[in-house]
């Protein structure tokens, strides 16, 4: 479903009517704080690390992590397919193997991989839905993590197992761990979308609540001013 992208803005009443007719599954997630991973990577001396996260529309995932302390960059893009098909027009067909994803680059001296994952599973998306987030349906909106290396993969796999064993959710975690064959930044108009379009109905209904949940559930990691891809938003 490509109902809210390509720079188009929903008329507010039409968007609200659609969501009401579609039912409560299409409203913003009711987030809650979950335990951090029992297994994490040790604090590193290196200044930068990154991991690619896919959890529905990249506007919201990017918007959340741009407000996280220790994150130095959050770039919307595509992962799972190849360079030839890494464009919004093609990815929107759901036939490219790509997922809308965000490359989160962070300073391991300030925030650990485990805390990044805790936020991802708590407020950035609903990890119990595999091929759907809110009003968006299809493999391009799947829940997936693309670790940068084997150490990250082990932490991610262990955390998914931990969450399932703890019964944190009413349903099993559907998030898949996939090989990172490349990350391809999305078109410029998709970058910093939440900051540049705060009153767009899709953002107001689906994504702004995620940032609000971040500020409430992770006040120690929340920063008011987002780190943007383009200076000035």
UniProtKB/TrEMBL annotation:
Residues 51-202 form the Peptide methionine sulphoxide reductase MsrA domain. GO terms for molecular function: peptide-methionine (S)-S-oxide reductase activity. The active site is at residue 57. Gene3D superfamilies: Peptide methionine sulphoxide reductase MsrA (3.30.1060.10). Residues 1-27 form the signal peptide. It catalyses: L-methionyl-[protein] + [thioredoxin]-disulfide + H2O = L-methionyl-(S)-S-oxide-[protein] + [thioredoxin]-dithiol; [thioredoxin]-disulfide + L-methionine + H2O = L-methionine (S)-S-oxide + [thioredoxin]-dithiol. Keywords: Oxidoreductase, Signal. InterPro entries: Met_Sox_Rdtase_MsrA_dom (IPR002569), Met_Sox_Rdtase_MsrA_sf (IPR036509). It holds the Pfam family PMSR. Its EC number is 1.8.4.11. PANTHER family: PEPTIDE METHIONINE SULFOXIDE REDUCTASE (PTHR43774), PEPTIDE METHIONINE SULFOXIDE REDUCTASE MSRA 2 (PTHR43774:SF1). NCBIfam families: msrA (TIGR00401). Has an important function as a repair enzyme for proteins that have been inactivated by oxidation. Catalyzes the reversible oxidation-reduction of methionine sulfoxide in proteins to methionine. Belongs to the MsrA Met sulfoxide reductase family. This is Peptide methionine sulfoxide reductase MsrA. It comes from Pseudochelatococcus lubricantis.
């Amino acid at each position: 479903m490509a109902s809210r992208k390509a720079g188009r803005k929903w008329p507010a009443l039409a968007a609200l009517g659609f969501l009401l007719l579609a039912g409560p599954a299409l409203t913003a997630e009711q987030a809650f704080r979950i335990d951090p991973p029992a297994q994490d990577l040790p604090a590193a001396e290196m200044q930068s690390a990154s991991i690619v996260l896919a959890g529905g529309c990249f506007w919201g995932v990017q918007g959340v992590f741009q407000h996280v302390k220790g994150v130095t960059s959050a770039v919307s893009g595509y992962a799972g397919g190849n360079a030839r098909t890494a464009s919004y027009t093609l990815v929107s067909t759901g036939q490219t193997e790509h997922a809308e994803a965000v490359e989160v680059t962070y300073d391991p001296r300030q925030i650990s991989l485990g805390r990044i994952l805790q936020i991802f599973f708590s407020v950035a998306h609903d990890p119990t839905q595999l091929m759907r987030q809110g009003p968006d349906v299809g493999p391009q909106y799947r829940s997936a993590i693309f670790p940068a290396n084997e150490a990250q993969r082990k932490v991610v796999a262990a955390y998914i197992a931990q969450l399932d064993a703890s019964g944190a959710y009413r349903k099993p975690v559907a998030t898949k761990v996939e090989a990172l064959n490349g990350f391809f930044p999305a078109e410029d108009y998709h970058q910093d979308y939440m900051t540049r379009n705060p009153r767009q109905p899709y953002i107001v209904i689906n994504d702004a609540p995620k940032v609000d949940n971040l500020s409430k559930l992770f006040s120690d990691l929340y920063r008011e001013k987002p780190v943007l891809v383009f200076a000035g938003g």
